[in-house]
Amino acid sequence: xxxxxxxxxxxxxxxxxxxxxxxxxxxxxxxxxxxxxxxxxxxxxxxxxxxxxxxxxxxxxxxxxxxxxxxxxxxxxxxxxxxxxxxxxxxxxxxxxxxxxxxxxxxxxxxxxxxxxxxxxxxxxxxxxxxxxxxxxxxxxxxxxxxxxxxxxxxxxxxxxxxxxxxxxxxxxxxxxxxxxxxxxx
Length: 186
Description:
Layout: E1 6-9, H1 13-16, H2 18-26, E2 30-33, H3 43-60, H4 66-82, E3 85-86, E4 92-93, H5 94-100, H6 103-131, E5 136-139, E6 145-149, H7 155-159, H8 165-185
Parallel strand pairs: 1-2
Antiparallel strand pairs: 3-4, 5-6
């Protein structure tokens, strides 16, 4: 004999009414009620419905009829599971995470994507540095040059996640100012 499907619902009056009970009995389904004053019992469902309201229902406003509402909500649910990136899932889609079903592999895939992105950015800026002039003259037209700026001066330090030399000097200057403030208080 098949086991009855179980549907998780809140304890609101629509879910506890006799009509609702009869309806689900006719479907041979069982209602599983969330515990009293335990909103976390239904958190995932509530989150989904909140997102669907914000991204679909409130934007449409009024559906022409019940059939079109069912179709549009169905399309949204398909989009939500198959195409929409989820921040809680490292911006992967729910279907991708479900198919992979391995958090370690998911994190490895994420790290590989980040590594490739860093390489692309580094290559882009290296190419920009080659194609542009070695330095760009600053200042206002007709008023003379105020300063010469090298756009690639700190490129290597950024990609190695090190501080550029001028930031080290600034930190030292801030330390010096902090020490002077301490000396003045004494």
